[in-house]
Structures are given as structure tokens and as C-alpha cells.
Write a structure and sequence with these properties.
Distance between the termini: 20 Å
Radius of gyration: 21 Å
Number of domains: 2
Strand order of the largest sheet: 1-9-8-5-4-2-3
CATH superfamily of the largest domain: Type I PLP-dependent aspartate aminotransferase-like (Major domain)
Number of strands: 13
CATH architecture of the largest domain: 3-Layer(aba) Sandwich
Helix content: 25-40%
Order of helices and strands: HHEHEHEHEHEEEEEHHHEEEHHEH
CATH topology of the largest domain: Aspartate Aminotransferase, domain 2
């Protein structure tokens, strides 16, 4: 049977009435820009993330760009980031005026290696962007002390990790709670996805929250008064309404993803050609992706697609090897752990609406491929 990589129609059927009712409230009121649903969603995400403030914006990319812009970077200022992530992480650094400094990842979690961050800090380092890749948090408790020591800001790219949490010193800490700024994406494929683009920033810093609110509204806290040049980065009220309808389902959806992940891991146990995802014991993973390391990865991908089984490679070319960053001087061999990952990783369908029969189809195909 066909198994899509993601089935948003299946999710839509489960929340249709709630979402459309929320949307109709906005439509009847005709307040599409900065309507009351924006503040309601901001408060809900702040509560979820244990943050004092949440500030909605137009996309997950802007959620990184605006905090980078708030660093007031000067030419030559550096911002450290992992090379193994979606392009927006580095694109936002560049467009915010920074020089990306790419570092390697941990081979198990695929998250940025804190030791690599420590080795990359220079007198020009102004920021660190860490990424909670595939749905589990990075080891912030190892990175934040480095940042404090060197007076460097930390931005947590939690685009794939909304609702994820990590035990730090015996206490559960949420994605978006600990750094200077946390960021989330509401791209439709995310665990909490809208019906278009959308993003959110979180912070504990009152002054920084006000700055981010200005930056998303052309740099002004008051209409037609502009303290600085900002951006047009407002979240549409309709998107906020959709997300408010979906938000109560998020915890259940994340639990469903964990169940599916455990089922895959058990099924692939003993299959030597496949290495299943490593979850840091301190993390509660939300499995935005279920990503394995696979021998003959490209052949496996082609085989699955020939069976109408969805799969994706996140990411086939790491950021330090992208042509647009060639002037930074990285080459193949610069970041060996990252480069090995980009040749081995493949993600399998993991959405909560995936049925047992569909998952069995994926499992059977992978096992058949490896004989």
C-alpha cells in the first residue's frame, strides 16, 4: 500500500471542525492583522515553553532572523551554528549581518557538539545558534555557561522541537525556555503546523521582548513611529486561529510519534545495516523526524520510493558545503561527523496518524531491502 512521508489530510480530518470554527471567528470579525488570536497564541506558547514572553512572527526563518538582527552585528562579527541543519539557520545569520561559523555535530543525536562550539569561539563571536534537530533538545546546560563566560547570546532554533523537554539538574526544561531567545516554526509539516508560514520567538528578557516586537512591526512600537528599521513580519490572525485549534492536540500527537518511533526501533533491532536514532537519556524526544543511519542509503531511498513509500534525506548537502557559502573556505573534510551523516541519514514516515498497517509496510520494505 502507498505510505506518504506525511499525510496532512489525515490530520485535517481529525481537527477540521475545531479549526474551521476558529477561522470563521476571524472571518466574521474581519480583523486579519494582529487580531486578538495573536496575543492568545503568544500567551499559550509562552506557557508551554515556560517563558515570560512569546512574540509571533511571519515564519520560522524570521524567528531566527529577528533575534540575530537584535545582536546589532558589525561587519566581521561571527555567529556559530551547526552545519547539519536546514538552510534557514545559516541564512538568517547571513541576512542578519553575521558571518556563519560552522561546527560539527555529535554522531549520536545529530545535535551540535558543545566541544566544537567551545573550540570555535573567537574575540569576534557574538552569537551561537543551536538547533534541536529532529525533535530533541541540544545540551544547553553545556553551552550556556560557555556563552555566559564570553558574553555571547544563545539562540535556540527549536523549529523541529516545540513541546520537547530536557532534564537539566533534575528539572524538566522546555524548548525555548533557557536561551536568550528560543524560536519555533509553524510550517505546515511541523508537529504544530499552520496552513501557511508562521513563527514564534520566546524569551525571559523583558527588554529583548519589546525589541523583537518592534522589529517585527517595521521597527516601531507605536504606529507610524519607528525607533529603528525593522521588518514586516507579522503572523496572520487566521494562522493564529488555526494553531490555537491545533495546540490542545500537540501533546497527544507527540506521544503518538514516540509510540511510532519505539515500534520502528524494536522492528529494526538486530538489523546491522540500520542504526536507529539515539535519544539522549536527558531528553523527551518529540520525533519530528525518525532518522536512521543506513548502509547504501541512496539505494534504500530509491527502493522505498519504488514501493510508493515516502522517505526524505535531511540533509543531503550540509551548510558548510553549500555554494553560497564557498567564500567561507570550508571543504569536504572540514566537518567529518557532519559529512558522514549527510551520506547515511534517511527519515521514515512518523506522523501520529500513521496506521499499524502502513508502518508495517515501511518496516517490511526496509527489512526486505537488506535481505
Amino acid at each position: 500500500m502507498p505510505v506518504p512521508m506525511l499525510d496532512l489530510k489525515a490530520q485535517y480530518r481529525t481537527v477540521k471542525d475545531e479549526v474551521l470554527a476558529r477561522m470563521m471567528g476571524v472571518i466574521e470579525r474581519q480583523q486579519f492583522i494582529m487580531g486578538p488570536e495573536i496575543a492568545e497564541l503568544e500567551q499559550a506558547i509562552a506557557d508551554l515553553s515556560h517563558a515570560r514572553h512569546a512574540i509571533a512572527c511571519a515564519s520560522g526563518t524570521d524567528a531566527i532572523l529577528l533575534p540575530v538582527r537584535a545582536l546589532n552585528l558589525e561587519p566581521g562579527d561571527e555567529v556559530i551554528a551547526p552545519a547539519f541543519t536546514f538552510f534557514a539557520t545559516a541564512g538568517a545569520i547571513h541576512n542578519g549581518g553575521g558571518k556563519p561559523v560552522f561546527v560539527d555535530i555529535e554522531p549520536g543525536t545529530f545535535n551540535v557538539d558543545p566541544d566544537a562550539i567551545a573550540a570555535a569561539i573567537t574575540p569576534r563571536t557574538r552569537g551561537i545558534v543551536v538547533v534541536d534537530l529532529y525533535g530533541q533538545m541540544v545540551a544547553l546546560e553545556r553551552i550556556l555557561p560557555l556563552a555566559t563566560k564570553h558574553n555571547i547570546a544563545v539562540i535556540e532554533d527549536g523549529a523541529q522541537a516545540i513541546g520537547a523537554r530536557r532534564q537539566v539538574a533534575g528539572t524538566w526544561r522546555m524548548a525555548g525556555e533557557l536561551p536568550n531567545v528560543g524560536t519555533f516554526s509553524f510550517f505546515p509539516s511541523k508537529n504544530l503546523g499552520g496552513w501557511g508560514d508562521g513563527g514564534m520567538m520566546t524569551t525571559q528578557d523583558d527588554a529583548l521582548a519589546q525589541r523583537l516586537k518592534r522589529l517585527r512591526l517595521h521597527g516601531g512600537a507605536k504606529q507610524y513611529h519607528h525607533e529603528e528599521v525593522g521588518f514586516n513580519s507579522r503572523l496572520d490572525t487566521l494562522q493564529a486561529a488555526i494553531l490555537l485549534a491545533k495546540l490542545p492536540h500537540l501533546a497527544g500527537w507527540s506521544a503518538g510519534r514516540r509510540t511510532r518511533a519505539a515500534r520502528y526501533t524494536e522492528a529494526f533491532n538486530g538489523l546491522g545495516a540500520v542504526r536507529t536514532p539515539v535519544t539522549d537519556p536527558a531528553n523527551e524526544h518529540i520525533f519530528h523526524q525518525y532518522t536512521i543511519r543506513a548502509e547504501r542509503r541512496d539505494d534504500l531511498s530509491a527502493f522505498l520510493k519504488s514501493r510508493n513509500i515516502g522517505c526524505m534525506i535531511y540533509y543531503p548537502t550540509a551548510l558548510h558545503l553549500q555554494p553560497c557559502f564557498a567564500e567561507l573556505g570550508y571543504r569536504m573534510g572540514s566537518l567529518p561527523v557532519t559529512e558522514r551523516a549527510m551520506k547515511e541519514v534517511i527519515s521514515l514516515p512518523i506522523y501520529p496518524e500513521l496506521t499499524d498497517a502502513q508502518q508495517d509496510e515501511v518496516i517490511s520494505a526496509v527489512r526486505e531491502f537488506y535481505g
